[in-house]
Amino acid sequence: MDQIQDQKQEPEIKIVLADESHVHYVDEILETIAAAAKVRGTGIAKRNPEYVKQKMIEGKAVLALCGDDFAGFSYIETWDNKQYVTTSGLIVPDRYRGKGLARRIKHMTFSLARKRWPEAKIFSLTSGAAVMKLNTQHGYKPVTFAQLTNDESFWHGCEGCVNFDVLQRTDRRYCICTGMLFDPNDPDCLAAAQKELDLDPTCRETIEAKYGPMPPYKLPEKESKTLLDKIKSLFK
Ligand SMILES: CC(C)(COP(=O)(O)OP(=O)(O)OC[C@H]1O[C@@H](n2cnc3c(N)ncnc32)[C@H](O)[C@@H]1OP(=O)(O)O)[C@@H](O)C(=O)NCCC(=O)NCCS
Questions:
Q1: Per-residue pLDDT at 231
Q2: Residue 28: which residues within 8 A CB-CB, separation 6 or more?
């Protein structure tokens, strides 16, 4: 009997695209985010339960579930008339940390953002080491704040942060967080993201089953060759 119990495995943890059937998780998600922010001592962008529910209903949120147990969450937001996207509110409860779940959640939110707004730049403003690592793995590069969105509603989110005075004092040019940007027109960003996402084929399958083929991770070949290129190709 003991042997059988020892062999009992933890249920598989699934990363799913959230929808209206998941709105009952919202209170637990927000409590977990608030508790984690308290531990980090950073303050936090206030999230209204209705806003998070709406994200789920609009297909802009991702959940990690271990059976029915909440194991992680994040969602996507668009700024500046969909020219920019962020993956936001990443949280994994203590008991599920260190198992690679944040990475799998990021694969899904990032892929969802790429699928829904392939022309948009994806950015992040963070002081978290884990998030910086995840961003780098997904092809983001460090940038100055001037390269991020100008959308006022994005920057309002910083008002709950303990360092907000720094951002104000510097006219929004510098703060404690690092700005990071994935530019869909930068071949280096695309190559890094493809390498990362190829590690996780289930993510692509999930997104494509719902939304159709993912955009390519290569820029289209330039059609118009320069005169020099044309001459070179004649002698090849
Ligand atoms: C940050 C957080 C989401 C990480 O979740 P997780 O599931 O434990 O992370 P993963 O196991 O997927 O790790 C992802 C990567 O980050 C690294 N990492 C995880 N926690 C880290 C930490 N505290 N410091 C430095 N790196 C860390 C891992 O080594 C891993 O890198 P690897 O794939 O190269 O090994 C989780 O700790 C959390 O919810 N924290 C509180 C909320 C928070 O800080 N959210 C981010 C807001 S900016």
A1: 78
A2: 70
Pocket test for ligand 1, best of 133, 178, 197 (most atoms within 8 A of CB): 133
Which residue's C-alpha comes closest to atom 46 of ligand 1?
A: 90
pLDDT tens per residue across span 159-190 = 988 899 999 999 999 999 999 999 999 999 99
In a domain, 90, yes or no: yes
| CATH at 44 | 3.40.630.30
pTM of the model: 0.91
User: CB within 6 Å of ligand 1 — which residues?
Assistant: 36, 40, 90-92, 97-103, 126, 128-131, 133-134
Residue 37: the pLDDT is: 86
- The larger pLDDT score, comparing residue 151 to residue 39, is at 151
Residue ID of nearest Cα to ligand 1 atom 12: 100
Question: Half-sphere exposure (CA, 13 Å, Cβ side) for 132?
Answer: 9
CA of 106 to the centre of ligand 1 (A): 11
Domain span including residue 97: 13-212
